[in-house]
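Protocol step 4 of 5: obtain the predicted structure for the target chain.
Materials: sequence only (see below). No template structures provided, no constraints applied. The aim of this step is simply to have a reference model before the mutagenesis design in step 5. Sequence pasted as it appears in the construct record:
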Amino acid sequence: MYVNISHIFSIYIVLKGAEVTVYSILLIIIGFLVGAWITRLLLRYPFGRHPVTGKETLIGMRGVVVRSTDDLIEVKLSNKQIWRAMSVDGHRIPTGADVIVKNVDNLTVVIEEAGASNSTN
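Step 4 output (structure tokens):
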């Protein structure tokens, strides 16, 4: 007597007139989960770069001085954020000057005029 083993171990579910095995449903679910995991990795680490957070993202960023008084300098950086700032050498930087962030000290960025770094080299 001939017995088809695949029919013994297969469980069939009837969905709207079509027979679908439990194994094919599990295969679809596993395929979806693996695809979602790979997509998450590609979105989180595009082109092999790891995300950079913290003060490292601000160092080297360019900006413009939006307010400059004797005791306060405010800078609008290229990422559209406004930060409290102080100059590297302690001098006052005029409003409208282009600056580069050299360091971050707590919640204050340490800046230098964009032309100042070129003139010293």
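Step 4 remarks: The beta strands are 12-15, 18-21, 62-68, 73-77, 82-87, 98-105, 108-113. The helical segments are 5-9, 22-44, 114-119.
Proceed to step 5.
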